[in-house]
Structure formats: structure tokens, C-alpha cells
Amino acid sequence: MSQVFGTPRLPAHAVPRTDRLGRAITLDPVLPARRAILFTGPPGMGKTRELDHAAELAVRQGWTTIRVEASAREPLEHRFTRAISADLGKLRREFGGFRVRQLRRTVRDLTQRQRKVQHGAEVRVGGGPVQFVTKRQWDATPQGNLGSTLNDVADQLGSLGDKPVLLLVDNVDQASPYDLAGLNELAVHLEQRGGPVWLVAAGGAMATSRLMAASERMSGIATTVTNQFDIRELGPMSDAELRSVLTIPLDRHRTPYESAGIDELVRAANGDPSRLRTLADAALELARPAITGEVAKAASARVQARSAVLYQGRWNKSSPAEKDLLARVAASNGLLMPPELAKAGAGRWQPIDQARHELVARGLLRADGERVTFADAGLQEWVNTSLGQIPSAPALPATPAPAVAVKTIGTTRLPVHQVDRKDGEGRPLSLDQRTPSSTTVLFTGAPGMGTSHELDRAEKLAVQQGWTSVRIEASPREPLENRLIRAISQDLDTFRTQYGAVAARALSKDLDRIASRSRNPQTGNEIRGGMPGVFQVVVKEQHDASERDEVGCTLNELADRLGELAAAKGEPMLLMVDNLDVASDRDLVGLTELSARLASNRQPVFLVAAGGELTTTRLLAASGGDAGVETDVVGRFDIRQVQPFTDAELRPALTEPLRQAAVPHEPEAVDRLVKAANGNPSRLRALATTALDLADTTTGLTTPVVKAATARLNDASRPLYEAAWHNCTPAEKDLLAKAAHHPIQLPTATTTRWSLESAATRPLTQGLLRATPTHLTIADPGLQTWLQTRFTHAALTPPTPSPPLTPNAHRTPKPPNRANHPTR
What confidence tens digit (pLDDT) does each residue in 289-312 have? Predict the structure, then answer.
């Protein structure tokens, strides 16, 4: 490895990266408002280098950093525990021992869930050569230590001081679904807390897809504007950037070169900084004395020859569909995908599209709109040579998109102008405007419609009225009881202030008994013979205690206790549960039981929950337990559906902030933005932010600006469209592709309708599709445009069946035996 250009982790000259829209990728001293940042891209694009830069920036600014790598072999909590423990000395010197003590305790509990501590007592009878011993031992507490979470650790790190803390997580591709769900939860938690802690992660092109699959909260197309990650996609570098990476180190070392040699190396690298470094090192080996055009060509040939074993390995790792696509792209020097999918026909294009997605994610192919090309010209030549193909003329390069900047006009959770919602009967939807008709209120809706925002409004109401509220989020990583125990335990001071020390002490005891059902008492007897201190023989017996074990309590008993507190003070108490989409079936059973208990108690404790459109269906199934026969518990819920806004309802969410900020705007421009949002308030906010970013301060929002902003947001959302699409089944992909070209009409009560509804269930829940009584349509116009670009309608039309052969028809000749010939 030459020292002229450095290494991938320590390059001699680093270029601040920008994406294909011209937005800065590399972190700068002004950290983004979004608390979670995700660097993604194919292999070799420099994702780890971006984390290195973030760590270097933190050192220069005096910030705290904790860096780990995700692993398929070990939970993320273990790696964070080791990383923070290794830095405790440095943290103690910077922040003092008192502040760090609590952090150390939280980190210790991060991996210690159940210590199984036992207490015991024994009685010895006799002092001579024979002793009789009877003893008893039991668990120290009925409920073991619940430990802490990554959220708790982040809060402790944030409380050390006012300076930023960066949690750096590399190699996200290796993380288990359990760890990915934890990263999703941490991102949401940091965004809600708004403290000085940032999560900065890096992963491959599939990282976004895997994060979506790991947590249904982030599934669906609404994640283009409501997910908590600032996704920064590292694509190929421009020729100008690659040229500076070469020429500046060469100038420093006074190595002669010709422009033709630099041009050849940049062309061969094709935007890949890792490949450029390999080519440049090979050119230095051959330079006699300067890097000329001929030297650069020889270096490219040498690198390609050395890479043949890697090309063979990548080819062997590819599926038959991927090999077939690689062969066609190699022969055509770039392949337009819509005609290829149309040629395959309905029901047969999905494997081709999946192969394209996998090859782009692996960095073997690059997608530029409708066309896919090879990322490495050496691999393309190897494929053509191996298969005996002669490539056609190369395709023309695409024109890069212009640069833009970004600024915000509010957030999803804190909009500048809050629009009050109403249901189909015209009644207010929010709890601060309409009293609940039940002790359980359930907000449901597609992603991005504002179900979590309704819990925010309820929580704000509780604060204004001085009521007690406890808010938790369901999780696939931890039972609901554990989260409720932790939330109340951490807020016991509030209960002590509100209801008194005696009530808080009793509540604490209830929490101790809620998770563990038995104290595992044991008794035993021993007989010791011999001289103590010299020689003894011990005969002993130990067995479970004969009396009944402690059975603890459930959420129902906890609800009874909370109901007594609320009734004694005469004030409502709110138990809020968000993100029900990812709750386990066991948690949903517990919620239905809790709801029934609250209704029978008739005390001022209210359960307020939020989830997706399938939440009601899942709760109905859970209400019957293992029997599977639903009860009427869910029927007594106050269910409030958060539907898409109408254009008239959505318009004030845009015009009011524009009026307050005195931003000029054309009525037609506002109409276009509202229509492009398609009833989604979060998408409207993202569109308006992008449009204001492009607008001139004098003319404000004009129709051309809005058109450009819509196209730009759709283009920026492409990684999320790709990720959501990747997580769909072939049947769901077929349904989405058809709906992108024409609304799918739902037939009357027939088997066809039931099949359509079954295939549409998950896309509807994820916000990809939207249903009316008669049709299925694409929920996000940006996704619709993306799908229309990706597929021609011909690909979705079933082929016309060929007429049956008659007895006199000519038979198709039997193909020759190719057993002894290579398969192409």
C-alpha cells in the first residue's frame, strides 16, 4: 500500500462528500436537527470513513463519542457496555466522578437482567462430632432487576453536560433484527427527547430495508417524511472530486503525472474512491517516472487481472436470475429495465426486478433511473469474456441533478400550525377537544397520519391540567410489563409528590411483584459427622418448599392500585401506549385484559393507545386468547380513526405558516403542494420545506418552484421507496405496480375481491396503498411516479395465450443435447 494516497480509513486527501442532489453528506460542526443519521451506500463508497470523520470532528470540538460495530454474533448492548466501560476513566476526568457514577450503574444494568440473588438462613444443633443443620433459602426479591436499555444509557450520557455526545454504530448490515429494532427505538427516543445525543450509524445499501423490516413503525412509504433517520446515501464521486483525490497527494509528493494519465485512472475508477486508490497504487508501481496515459492503462489491466478471482467469487455467489441479468447488462453496455420487465410479462418480472435490486445493493450494478450499468468496467469485461459475448456501444452518461439546500419550517411532532382533526361524523378527534366515551381510547391510522401526534396532544393536556400521565412504547424487544414498570419506577418522585409517600411505597411494592411470579423458596437438612476443622462427612437433602409460592400480580392489579390513587385525588390518570404495531400477541392480550379491568373498575384511569390500521384486527384476535374467539372488549373501546386530510383541511397547515412568516405565494402553487401531499400532513410539511428552500425571497412560492420541489423530494425519497419495495412479497409488488398505472377496482362480493383484500392487507397497513369502498390507489404520489418510471404497463398485462396445437400442426423440433456445452 502506497503512502502517497493513504489508506481507506486515513486518506491523504479527503473530500467533503455531497449527494447527487448537492446536499452535504459529511457532518460539520453544526449538527443536524435530526438526532439520528444513517450513512448508506454500496461497498467501497466510504461509509466507515464518514464515521471516522465524525469521530475526528468530535475530537476537534471537544465532544464525547462512543463507537461500536454491530455484530451478528453479539448483542449491541454488550458492545456498548464494553465501549463505555473502557472510556469511564476519561469520562470521570472530564465530568467528575459523581456524574459518571450513575452512568456506570446504568451501563452495568444494560446486560444484567436477572442476577438471581438469594437469601438464606440455617440452624445448627449440636457441638460435638455430630451436628444437625436445617436451612432455608429464597430469592432476594420477587422480581429480578429489569436492567436498563440503550435509551437509558443515551439519557445518562446526555445528562453529563451540554456538549454533544455522538453514538457511532458501524457495520449496521451485520446487526440482528433484534438490534436493528433497538436502533429504531433509540432513534425515536433521541428525537423525542431532543437532548445533546446523536446516533450516527453506517450500513450498506440494504440497511434502510432491514431497518424497516425490523420495526413496523418505520415500514411503509410514510417513512419518506416521518422516519427518524436522516438518511445520507453515498453514491459515486464526481470526476472532479476523484481528480482532486489523485492530484493533491501527487503534488505533495512531487510525483510527475500527465493529464491523460489522471483522466484514464478517473475513468477506470467510475466514481468509486476505493477502486481509485487501488488503481492509483498500481500506477505508482509502474510509473517510470511519470503517470502517463499508457501507465494508467497498464495499471488498469494489472488491477483487473488481480481482481479476476474476486470477479469469479462474485459470479459464483449470484443466483441464476442475477447471472442472467449481469450477462444481459454486460452485453448491452447498459440496460433499460422497463422494456426488459415488459418483455418478461405479468407474473414473471418479479425475479428480474429482485435480481436488479440485489445486484445494485451489492455494488455490482448501478441504477440511474430506468437504466442499469456495471459499476466496475473490469467486471463487465470479465463477464463478456467468460461468456464469449461482444458488447454493444456504450450508453451516454446521465446528467447529474442540480444542488439544493435544506431548511425546516417545523417538525412532524411540533408543527408550526396545528390543524384540528374531525372524524366522519364531524366530531373532534383529539382528546383535548372531545371527552372519551370509554376508559380505553385507541387512535388508528396509516403511517404519517398523526397517531403519535394525538398522544402528544393528550400528554400536553395532562401537563396543562396537572394530571399524572405515563407514556411507553410497545417493543418487539421487551414485554409491555417491563416497560411500564421501568416508566413508573423512574417517575416515582412524581407519584410521591402527587399522592404521598405511603401511596408511592405501596405502588413500588406492586411493581416489585409484577414481573416474577415465584420466589422459588427451598428448604434443606444436613447431618455432619466428624471433627470440625479436621474431617467431616456431610449428608444433606434440599427440596422445594411445600407452601404455595408467591404468584405476584399482573397489570390488572397495578391498574387497581393506580385507580385507587386517581379516585382518591379525583383527577384522571393517563396510561399511554404508542407503537402498538410491533407489540407481541402476548402484550395485546395483556392490553385487552387491562382495558376490561379499567372498564369494570369505573375509576378515572384511562388507557390511551395508538397504532396502525391493523391494530383493531389484532386486538380483536388477542381478546379471545388461545381460543381465538373474539370477545366484546375491543367493541367497548373509543376507537378514533386518523384518516387522511381533505384538501380543505390540509390547506391551513400550509397557508397559516406562510402568512405568519410573510412568505409570498401563488394560489396555484399552494394547490399543487396540497394535491401532491395527498392528504398526508407529514408529506405536505416535507414538500413545503423543500419548496421554501428553492424559493426566491422576493417571489416566494411559485408554480415552477413547487414543480421542482416535488420532483426533488421524490428523488430524495428514492432510497426509502427502494427499501419499502424490497420488503414486499411478489404478490404485493404486482399489486402496487398495477395500482401505479390505474386505480384497481374492487369487484363486488366475489372470491376475486377477497384475494385482492388479502394481498393488499400489508401495503394498506404500511401506507403504501390507500383504499376507498371501490378502489385501491397508491397513497404516495412520489411512489406512484417511481413505479411508473420503473415499469411499463406492458409488464403487468398477462400475455395472450397461444391457440392449442391441432393434431396436424407442425411439431416444435427437439432442441439438441447441450450436456457437453457450457451454459450461457
Answer: 889 999 999 999 999 999 999 999
Give the three-class secondary structure for 331. helix
The b-or-e profile of 482-503 (16+ CB within 10 A means b, else e) is bbbbbebeeeeeebbebbeeeb
Nearest to 602 by CA among 435, 433, 432, 440: 440
Whether 226 contacts 193, CB under 8 Å? no
Kindly state the helix (H) or strand (E) to which residue 544 belongs, with its residue range: strand 535-544
With contact defined as beta carbons under 8 Å apart, do 503 and 495 qualify?
Answer: yes
Is the four-CA dihedral 404, 407, 413, 416 of positive or negative sign?
Answer: negative
Cα 677 from Cα 621, distance rounded (Å): 34
Decide if 691 contacts 705 (C-beta within 8 A): yes
Beta strands in 744-813 (DSSP E): 744-745, 769-771, 775-778
How would DSSP label each residue in 592-624?
A: HHHHHHHHHHTSSEEEEEEE-TTHHHHHHHHHT
Give whole-number Cα distances, 234 to 20, 205, 719, in Å: 9, 9, 11
Q: 667 preceded by cis ω (within 30°)?
A: no
Q: State yes or no: pLDDT of 269 exceeds 60.
A: yes
Give the DSSP H or E segment for 47. helix 47-61
Strand, coil or helix: 167: strand
Which of these, 415, 453, 413, lies nearest to 642 by C-alpha position? 453
Rounded distance between C-alpha atoms, residue 148 and residue 103, angstroms: 11
128, burial (CB in 10 Å: exposed 0-12, middle 13-18, buried 19+): exposed
DSSP string, 663-726: --B-HHHHHHHHHHHTT-HHHHHHHHHHHHHHSBTTTBB-HHHHHHHHHHHHHHTHHHHHHHHH
Quick check: 202 and 39 in contact, CB under 8 A? yes
User: What are 683-741's pLDDT values in tens digits?
Assistant: 888 888 888 888 887 888 899 999 988 988 888 888 888 888 888 899 899 999 999 99
Question: Grid cell 420466589 — which residue?
Answer: 519
Angle between helices 293-306 and 273-286 (to 10 degrees): 120
Are residues 645 and 679 in contact, defined by beta-carbon separation less than 8 angstroms? yes
Position 387 pLDDT exceeds 80: yes
Q: Grid coordinates 384540528 are at which residue?
A: 420
> Residue 627 gets which letter from DSSP?
G
CA dihedral 47, 52, 54, 59 (to 10 degrees): 180
Residue 143: phi and psi, rounded to 5, are -135, 120
Residue 241, C-alpha cell as written in the block: 472530486
Which residue, 606, 608, 599, 605, is CA-closest to 640? Answer: 608
Cα–Cα distance for residue pair 705/676, rounded to 1 Å: 13
Q: 349-358, 395-404, 643-652: lowest mean pLDDT where?
A: 395-404
Over residues 580-589, the pLDDT tens digits come to: 988 888 999 9
Neighbours of 546 (CB within 10 A): 7
H or E stretch covering 100 = helix 97-110
SS3 417: coil
